[in-house]
Write a structure and sequence with these properties.
Blueprint (H helix, E strand, L loop, with lengths): L1 E5 L5 E2 L10 H9 L4 H4 L2 H14 L6 E7 L4 H6 L2 H11 L10 E7 L4 E6 L1 H6 L2 H16 L3 H19 L16 E2 L1
Parallel strand pairs: 3-4, 3-6
Antiparallel strand pairs: 1-2, 1-5, 4-5
Length: 185
């Protein structure tokens, strides 16, 4: 499942079969965007996000990975939109490779002003588009107000609640399979 929301104009794309055409405009946008993830998310913010992930993963086997990217590498920016980039990172960081297929990626692209949520196939079948859309919408509201840390914290908490509802609490989480620290690219 992939959710894409732009926090400038609230456009939502649900169709996973759309193929993005190479875009010189997107490439220039990323070329001129100054890498700024550390300006938006300092060490305290990163620690708070890691704590929120730890709390959101408590009590179930779901795994949450947060990736925040200022701008895409230029090769990817020409060929991929933020949805495709999130799918690429989902595979690259092996979010799909958890023991119980319980991974969820929250991806924030600062240059594109986009939020993506990609979840593993088991979770995808048991949840609805509306549930993921509501999480993205909450995050977008905070991002529009330039509350970047709060947006990610709320998104992580909401995904944690959804995973808690999805997974049987009788299953014991033996170990943490994905890092709780956000990945800043």
């Amino acid at each position: 499942m992939v959710r894409q929301d732009k926090f400038n104009d609230m456009v939502t794309t649900v169709d996973q079969d759309l193929h993005t055409q190479p875009s010189l405009k997107r490439w220039f946008k990323h070329f001129f965007f100054l890498p700024a993830t550390s300006r938006y998310f300092n060490q305290q913010d990163q620690h708070a996000i890691a704590q929120a992930v730890t709390e959101a993963e408590h009590g179930h086997v779901g795994e949450i990975q947060v990736i925040i990217e200022g701008n895409m590498p230029l090769k990817e920016a020409y060929y991929f939109d933020s949805r495709q980039r999130a799918q690429q990172l989902f595979a690259q960081y092996r979010v799909w490779d958890t023991e119980l297929n319980s991974g969820v990626l929250i991806y924030l692209n600062l240059c594109e002003h986009a939020v993506e949520i990609v979840c593993d196939r088991g979770i995808c079948r048991a949840t609805t588009q509306e549930q993921w859309h509501s999480i993205c919408k909450i995050m977008i509201e905070q991002l529009k107000q330039q509350q970047y840390r709060q947006a990610v914290l709320i998104g992580v908490q909401q995904v944690g609640k959804l995973l808690n509802d999805f997974y049987d609490n009788q299953i014991t989480d033996l170990h943490n399979e994905l890092s709780n620290r956000p990945i800043l690219l």
